[in-house]
Automatic annotation (TrEMBL):
Belongs to the DEAD box helicase family. It comes from the Eukaryota. The lineage of its organism: Eukaryota, Fungi, Dikarya, Ascomycota, Pezizomycotina. It is found in: Nucleus, Nucleolus. It comes from Viridothelium virens. The Q motif is unique to and characteristic of the DEAD box family of RNA helicases and controls ATP binding and hydrolysis. GO terms for cellular component: nucleolus. The chain holds residues 24 to 261 of 806 of the full protein. This is ATP-dependent RNA helicase.
Length: 238
């Protein structure tokens, strides 16, 4: 099959996916591209966690999501799988395609963890260029790297610096924004930075917001960044 045929078949399968009644247990029950299937298998991911089973189908269909589930419940793949798949299906890949997805994390350590998972499941077969913008390199080095990225994992302060200072940084191709650990983003005082970042981004985008806890500050951020979100939360069952 040609890439176009594969994308077309996936598109149909995603459209047909029933997010209301479908009982999804395994990654292989989802309409995913071959490269992502391969990456998940290589990472020994086969069974969906609860938050993944609820959030990934909605994410694949393009919904905005407000997701809450405790630490360790598998939120990283709940947003990385839709990011990889939605960019793959829209074929915005390669050096000239521009930045398609921005994943914001409160700390450098967490950003590196997300990047490692992205690398693990995305490295084989996917042609995306992904990178980290978390400081620690010169602004100029980061600028050059950013110009080639399709997916960036970043911290709020540093990416805002690029948005406001780098004239050549084009954000027009951005389709997806992820705010991970939104409760910590707010607790660490990044509200103004995130507000300012959102001002730079295209209005017609998909936004996924994940948090370990649901707080007032998180719902404030959600109101500002999400459009008609699907609420997905996983409560512990005793
Ligand atoms: P959270 O962001 O909710 O705190 P993570 O995404 O960091 O959770 O995942 C926590 C741990 O669970 C990680 O070690 C990850 O590799 C593992 N994990 C995530 N999803 C799955 C899955 N579907 N099957 C098995 N292990 C998983
Ligand atoms: Mg996490």
């Amino acid at each position: 099959h040609t890439a176009e045929e594969n994308v077309h078949r996936l598109e149909e399968a995603v459209t047909a996916l029933d997010t209301k009644t479908a009982e999804l247990k395994l990654f292989k029950d989802l309409p995913l591209s071959e490269p992502t299937r391969f990456g998940l298998k290589a990472g020994h991911f086969s069974t969906l966690t609860d938050i993944q089973a609820k959030a990934i189908p909605l994410g694949l269909k393009g919904s905005d999501i407000l997701g809450a589930a405790k630490t360790g419940s598998g939120k990283t793949l709940a947003f990385l799988v839709p990011v990889l798949e939605n960019l793959y299906r829209s074929q915005c890949i390669g050096a000239d395609a521009g930045l398609g997805a921005m994943i914001i994390s409160p700390t450098r350590e967490l950003a590196i963890q997300i990047f490692d998972v992205l690398f693990k499941i995305g490295r084989k077969g996917h042609m995306f260029a992904a990178g980290l913008i978390i400081g620690g390199k010169s602004v100029q080095e980061e600028q050059q790297a950013l110009a080639r990225m399709n997916i960036v994992v970043c911290t709020p302060g540093r990416i805002l610096q690029h948005l406001s200072q780098t004239a050549s940084f084009s954000i027009d191709a951005l389709q997806m924004l992820v705010l991970d650990e939104a409760d910590r983003i707010m607790d660490m005082g990044f509200q103004r930075d995130v507000d300012a970042i959102i001002e730079y981004l295209p209005k017609s985008r998909q936004t996924l917001l994940f948090s370990a806890t649901q707080t007032k500050k998180v719902s404030d951020l959600a109101r500002l960044s999400l459009k008609d979100p699907e609420y997905v939360s996983v409560h512990e069952t005793a």
